[in-house]
Fold these 2 entries.
Entry 1:
Amino acid sequence: MEALQYGRNIFVAEISFKRTADQDGIEHQAQMPGGLPRADDLPTSEEMVAQLLAQKHEVRVENALRFHLFEPNDLDIRFVEQPTFSDLCSQELKKRDPRQCFWVRVKGRLPDSMALHQAIAAYFTDHLLLSTSLRPSGLHIWNPEVVRMATVDHCLWFHQAFRVDQWLLYQMESTRAGGGRGFCTGRLFTEQGEMVASCAQEGVIYLKSNV
């Protein structure tokens, strides 16, 4: 499948299917991370941003915060790890492991069409995945030092049925970054710990130091 814009190819997709949803055979899965707070016990992304904006930031940091996190959408996102004022503005950047996760669901009830739920999952699995590559450098996507990030390719596998209007934990990891690129993988888990989807992504990362 190809998508064209102004006569130029901007998107190529390859899709594979299997005949039946359930087949006998071996079965195992990666384990869902343990010890995490429940989604309902975490602030919404709007509440988190409002708390951050109540503090004094550089104008560029405030603009990036508003652009990346405060834009209206139909996704309810709850970050397991809450960014702080010092994370955004400190001259001594706090380096982190290249892993992060958040809870996500669509606001409101959706029809039962699995194709619809899978399409929405394909959309939000691109959200913040590439930013996982920034963590070992102590950066966030809303730091002024980050100029531009863009997805180059995104692969997604659905393992079993799920609903995006129920909480899903999105676990992300970056195993490699270099040469202006970042590589990340992700997993989606239900609240019951069932792994329902996996993804992999490579993207371009432009910083002030390489533009």
Entry 2:
Amino acid sequence: MWTIPDWKEPRDWFHGTTKVGCLAGEFYECVDILHVGNKGAVSGFAAAAFPNKSVDGLLDAWLKRGSLGVSPFKPDKRCYIKIPDPVEGGVLAELQPTFANLIPFSRVGRDRTVYGQWPSTATAPSTVSPEMESASAPVSSPPQDTLPVRVTWAAPFERLKPLMSTMDDLYAHACMRSIAELSGTDEAGARAQSAIEAREWLSQGQSTVARAWLEPIISEEGEMGALFAIASRFGIEANSLADALSNASLRKELGHPMPVQRAWGVPGLMWGLLLDRLNGSESFKSCKVCGQLISGKADKRFCSEEDNAECYRARRREDKRRSRKGK
């Protein structure tokens, strides 16, 4: 579903097998609708952007330092996006960069790293929307004495990112890290705070049984897995998925509405996964060496190679050094 400035018609059309909708809006916006199954499988037009078409492991990757950051922005670099067109299938449109958010510097570290902070002081009221609260009148060139940067996404999120990210993404990421750290000592408090912070990103929605239940099963388990699931749930047996879907009774069942939790964007998905983890009484722990958040067994104390390869290898080297010294 797109919104495009000054769009007239049509409201929707098919591009191949994909239905495209388009409405007039203030900005260029695109919403890809995907469904996540009970086992984490992702189905939908952009499902291939997810590692193994699944959300497994995404929350742990998101909570790591460096999954979101900032990088220099070149205002003279032209930026294009492909917007839908009912005849051509898609046309290129140039986006003009504007500068609207001003985040004050809070300090400069010994390594000359510059730190920004919003709200501007620790005593200021908590922010609700950093993007809106830090906005000034947009201009076409960086304001004087400022450092133009943009939010960047690291693997595996670089394929899931929108064209431009915002301070709201950084704020949501920081909130989730703080809540995950809190869960190690106050699980109930972390769960309550997470439910409050996630309200702007999650809502109740409605889909169909076909899209919310069957399609993720097909994505993860293939045709045979879907046939077993259909036989188990509806008592309808078939030799192929095509045969099953030719059954009028099954098509009626698959067309029934099904309640879903709607998550907006990557931060919304991460809030949903975080709530699921905390509601399942799975708290987070920190590595005793580097302090990074880790997941796994309750007695786990240090980073595994998957958590932080650098920390893991450094600890292994130290273990070997101690072992040789003991001999």
